[in-house]
Amino acid sequence: MNPLTLEEKQQADALFETIFEHCKGCKDEDNEYRIRKAYALAYKAHDGIRRRSGEPYIIHPIEVALISAREIGLGTKAVISSLLHDVVEDTDYTLDDINAMFGPKIANIIDGLTKISGVFDGGSMQAENFRKMLLSLSDDVRVILVKLADRLHNMRTLQSMPAHKRYKIAGETLYLYAPLAHRLGLYKIKTELEDLSFKYKEPSQYAAIESQLVSSEKKRAAIINKFSLPIINSLTRQGIEFNVTGRTKSIYSIWHKMQTKDVPFEEVFDIFAIRIVFITDEKEKEKSLAWNIYSVITDHYQPNPDRLRDWVSTPKANGYEALHTTVMGPDGQWIEVQIRSQRMDEIAEKGYAAHWKYKSSKDQEGELDKWIHKIKDLLKDPNSDALEFLDEFKLNLFTSEIYVFTPTGALRRLPKYATALDFAFDIHSKVGSAAIGAKVNHKLVSLSTKLQSGDQVEILTSSTSNIKREWLEFVTTAKARTAIKNAFKEDRKKAMNDGMEKLDEALQKLGYTQNNYLLRKIFEAYEVSSKTELYCKIGRGAIDLKDLKKIINKKRRNKFIRYWQLQFGKNKNKEAGNVNKAFVLAEDLEGSNYQIAPCCNPIPGDDVIGYLTEDDEVMIHKTTCPKALKIMSSQGDKIVTAQWKAHKIMSFLSTIQIQGIDRMGIVHEITGIISNDLNVNMRALTINSSEGVFNGTIDFYIHNVEDLETMISDIKKIKGVTNVKRTENIEEISE
Ligand code: MN
Description:
Blueprint: H1 6-17, H2 19-22, H3 29-45, H4 59-71, H5 76-84, H6 87-90, H7 95-102, H8 104-116, H9 127-139, H10 142-156, H11 163-183, H12 187-201, H13 203-215, H14 217-237, E1 242-248, H15 251-261, E2 272-278, H16 286-300, E3 309-310, E4 323-328, E5 334-341, H17 342-350, H18 352-357, H19 367-380, H20 386-398, E6 401-405, E7 411-415, H21 420-427, H22 429-433, E8 435-440, E9 443-445, E10 457-461, H23 478-509, H24 516-526, H25 531-539, H26 548-553, H27 561-576, E11 582-585, E12 594-596, E13 608-612, E14 618-622, H28 626-634, E15 639-644, E16 652-661, H29 666-677, E17 681-690, E18 693-702, H30 705-716, E19 721-726
Helix pairs in contact: 3-5, 4-5, 4-10, 5-8, 7-8, 8-9, 8-10, 9-19, 9-20, 10-11, 10-12, 11-12, 12-13, 13-15, 14-16, 23-25
Bound molecules: manganese (II) ion (MN).
Residues 60, 85-86, 150 line the site of manganese (II) ion.
């Protein structure tokens, strides 16, 4: 305990009072009372606590509330939640206390905030935590907005954290929070988050660009003045009320451009933009005014036709509205001009909350609402695999979008790089599954054709479903992917049933019924390893049963003995209710008495359990596997204890994920360690790099856990690698 001095208390109180200057609704008598009550509680709860910098803790929630009110434009509930956001997590107060004092709505937001806190502050980022965060988005979007305010203040005060934590927090901010802020239309916050992250991650590069910006300031101001003067004169003559400002690109985006275009500072041509914000009370007139101003500008300067962006007629999905054009300036350089109304400007700066403020009841549902609904639906879909969905969702955060048209001229939005097939599934899953080809701008093309903004797309369909596995290779949207995979699950089920019936029939004709002994022979003959595979292949016609009689009459071989031992174990266990007898996992998979579960991929040395599947095979799971836990709790009688016997000869498939900061040669170093140093066999390698952060997945064969751990710790030592972990859950479709 380190009580506040009188001076510190006065400072905190004074800072708190400024909240009311930035939140109109907060001044309402009842609201003000509740906000003061929240402050009093937060003050008491955090009393005597200081942040690492020595600053009283209470300053942090006040600042977060200020950001919520001033920079995001949120109201009373968000201000109260901001003030209380760390109370349940860090102090003795509980959610019930909050509920009793402030009601269920606030308690609900605090609950959401508490659930997702620690996600990025403590351990490493996990898909499941990210999912929690998105789930809270569908619950009450304020949870994420307050979380963003919290993160912004933490970034502003990051200096007092130890270096290694700074680096990690900055990485997470750049990786997830900034794109999320962008997606919600909070441009200012997105930009500040990026700049702060960059500053802590690459201090010297940040400083270099900053000083170049300062030293080129005067020159820039001169260009802006020279450029604006004739426009200002013309607009004033027309009686248009407006403001002109020069906006410099953020340090991070300048750096990003230097990297991606591989050019020096001097050659980033759009380091600044001119912004014209016009004032009108009539929303109906905004569009014609914007184009009017555009026409004035192009009277003076020659526009670049490739760089005209009309987000007035078609706002961006995150709500952004403006008219952008790039024109040739007086000194022969391209200059971007952004034209917006005051209303559009506020939406651009504050995003979501401002968007809400201007929405009248008769307005159609905005694109942002649609997006949020889409997330809600996707999260609700019991068929969607959480992890897979998240992967794709995160990709969708980064991609920008294209606009395409249906044959009747209706506009659809799709992520960049979407194909004609994505479009088909976007229209309806029935259209997607029956698609056979497409016409883009009246020309016949294949379904894998990538669409461009402005394309008019017509989908040609057959009367029946035409889904193909290869489609997964070129669809880009989560919706299409999920629909295709689900169709395959159904298709597979049908093939299995057909196959099973056909086999039964064929055996009956020969006077047999299915039993494991016969099945074993059949497996051998057709070179399949499970009932599932066998039935599917029969069902799909890949196996005909012409030779069945010959196969059955073949003599049995020694190989089957092991299998029978397993059966014995199961029956005995069932009768005696004894599940504790250990099932020994031999190193020889050929004997095929067990299978490695694809969900958790255990390797020798892992703690494992076996589960008797309906195919009478033992499926080996890790004891920590969520699927195994579910089985253990619901079907205890099918559990077989399992142990590894020997594990030096065989290699097992395992997967690791690597995250880090992208730099030249890093992939080479990683693969070097895997292939040279430890002599493991790599099977597949995927590296995605985005905004300077890379994310890699490596599948390889390894002997045991010890080797795996050695390898992980070796990779961790590589400069730039921030996180290496073994993947616990990879779901693949297996035939
Ligand atoms: Mn906090």
